[in-house]
Amino acid sequence: MNVRDNAQQRMLRVDLSTGAIGVEDLPREWTGKYLGARGVTGRLLYDEVHRGTDPYGPENVLYIGTGPMDGLPVGMGRLSIATKSPRGCIGEGSVGGFLGPELRRAGYEYIAVRGCSDKPVYLFIEDDRVEIRDAGHLWGKTTYQTDDLLREQLPDPDTQFLYIGPAGENLVHSAMVFSGRDSTGGRAGGGEVMGAKKLKAITVRGHGGIKPHDYDAFIDAYKGFRRLLNLRTSRDMWTPVWSTYGAPVLSRLFPDLGNLMTNNAQMMSWDSEKAAAISSEHFMNDYVSRAQSCFNCPWPACKKNFRIDKGENAGFTGGNYWAGQPVALGSAIDNGDLDLMLILSGLCNQYGLDIFHVGFTLSWAMECFEKGILTTADTDGLELRFGMTDHQALIDLLDKIVRKEGFGELLALGCWEASKRIGKDSYKYCLTVKGQELEAIAERNLLMVGLGIAVSEVGPDHTRWYPPYPPNPSIISKEELHELGIDLDLKLAFDTRNPKQKGELLRWFTISRAVVEALPSCVFLVRDTLGLDLRPWWKLFEAATGIELDYQEFVKTGERLMNMDRLFNVREGFSRKDDHVPYRMANEDVPHFGYKKIDQVTLDGMLDEYYTANGWDPQSSVPTRPKLEELGLTDTIADLEANGIEVKG
Amino acid sequence: MKKLELRYVAAVYPITSKLNEQFETDAGTLRELIRELDDVYGGFTEMFLDSRTGKLTLNTMIYYGAKGSVPKGVLDADQPIADQATITFW
Amino acid sequence: METDLLQKPSEESTVKRIYVVEELCNGCRLCESFCGSLSKGIFGPQSGRIRVLKVPGGEKSVPMVHCDGRCVRPIYEDGSPTCVRVCPTGALIFAEQERAVQVRQEYEAARSAHSIFKVVAPWIWPFPWRRPGEKRARSAEGEVV
Lengths: 649, 90, 145
Prior knowledge:
- The structure holds 3 protein chains of 3 kinds.
- Helix content of chain A is about 40%, strand content about 10%.
- Chain A is globular and about 60 Å long.
- By secondary structure, chain A is α+β, with helices and mostly antiparallel strands.
- Chain A contains 27 helices and 19 strands.
- Chain B contains 3 helices and 5 strands; from the N terminus they run E-H-E-H-H-E-E-E.
- In chain B, strand 3 and strand 4 (about 70-75) form a beta hairpin.
- Chain C is built from 4 helices and 4 strands; from the N terminus they run αβαββαβα.
- The longest helix of chain C has 17 residues, at about 95-115.
- Chain C is globular.
- Chain C starts with 8 loop residues before the first helix and ends in a 32-residue tail after the last helix.
- Classes of the chains: A alpha+beta, B alpha+beta, C alpha+beta.
């Protein structure tokens, strides 16, 4: 049996224009320098996808990658999906499921897909056997139909699938990639680029094994890791609740805190009855059928499958009702009907649509309609209002969006592009940054979140710094933090509406989460002290790979990754001016709660702190020469300068 | 008598079997309120107070919102409670 | 050691075995991963005594196991069955037959009373809860494992 050396990563290269397939070993030293997953795909993207590449063209590369810790019970099946986004920036997002371990068992950590096929294809991988196969019978099919058809063809239940839905095929803005049913990710361009390449799916089966370099040390480290995440012993209020009832619980608290975007964020609080109607408790009582996990996850029920039992939609099933839906398909469009929310969410998953794109583009359109900017002439006769009761019309709109028909064609552009076409100052109502819609977390009450959304290189992506809350102060002391190299004034840093220390805090969160994602593992498990004290991850990494890094070197891999992402963007022409918050957050205080808008002065102060702390030039946000030297990335300087980017210092 | 709005979220729900209620009490602090709710429902003392330290447990949270104010997470079980406060048990 | 399934109940009932509460399996495969790794330290191939049957369509996962709980090399010092210890939902229990039947009945009653037990076992749940027919909530009495 083929047993992998976890320190040596391998990549499968596929060119869909020429049909060429090859395998290469990545430089061995990359594992200790970049770790894996996002760490490596970020480096590859910089090296191989040059400035000005057409995201939909054959020169754009789609990387799908896991890392040295997957296939072991810490990897959680995480996959990085990285490419150049149609928004022009780096497009990276991760997804869970079971494909990562299977890919490693087949003998690879990465798949790099270049070129575009003329006809729909899927990539078949079984150990050494790799084939580009015809996918004509899959094209046009929903994700559920695709999953069923692939399973008929490849009945071994351990064969894992990755695919897009019709939304990706039709290049709908922000289309998703699926790692198995209802396991979604890659909203920053992954689905669109797969569609542009006419790559409908990837199937993987592997017969190898994964062995930690030191099994006993690995088991020892693993037990410590589990203790921090066990429902009974985790010293974190989110662990027992997030891991069972799940994130929709937030609908019962966020309205009081002024954290819930309602009516396209015109308000930050919602009717308490509607909030209760879409709550986790209600969902658990009346809709949940069973829990559905990712590979080897230590938590019981992050994802849950559901079934609508009553009413005209009885029999409808779906999965993965999480934090996004209560906002994007709930309060943002003033929908307090859980059936409707679950159907819209379920259909988004079947069609391959991004719920944030759909929800926030609909909420933008509703505000525009109520203000007379859009009329029934634009909306195919639909009266588009917040809290509208014509549920079937909303459901039908999803189909129109996928097909880009009628009003759906405008909505399929995504909110930002749609506002450019409509004009009339409709951009003011877009909840977007870098052309990508927001997610669920509020900004004006949590300034670090506002900053994090502004600077995220892929557009709004909370997973880059999630979770943003402080640990209970009794579980880690200032002395311990200092030993770990974290010299934040925690009280000030977590004073959520004070702009001071937010840049420093965001810097730490971004670096630590980058390390976790690059191993790979799941940032959802960053609880207890795991977001401040990375030593448990470090011990697991060493036991798995045999690579001995000192602690600060290990942490630095996260900073290196953060810089690679920024370098890709600055080379494409992104700079400080692109790191901003949506118009509403910059110009309007939160009604009733009085949280202040994030005006330019406030944002500038936070950006200055963030860029300076990172060793980036405060004007251009380009990493400086001393920082690149520190990170061992000086090989990028010549390329940057050749592309007209000035590297200071 | 104080009139409180109590909210029971997620893990508290299998104790109370209700999501919220109006509750009348003479309790002066959260600790006293927890004990009172324990008398009614059972479970509250064990869930929210660490038997060794007497402090609030680390895998739960209580949000206290004085009338008209935004709720805040509580770190001290002996925090006083006022009439018409909204208290969320998490 | 293969157990003769036609053993008389009185002998069978004193042997502890691994039993499965199917509804609680979330398909994570931690049991399969760890069990398979115990003899040679290799994760991945299903070389252990427990396998998770994945029903097509992703709707269901069912652990299949025939094991007396004595791991070839348990990872916990007390020798408790590894799969049972690593299972995050409590879908695996280690008990004598009579106790396993009781646990099953208690589980069904708990699940009818509180929907949270659709996704996590009462014996994993870290907080007190109200038993059906009782007025006040209380915590788990003793470990099933």
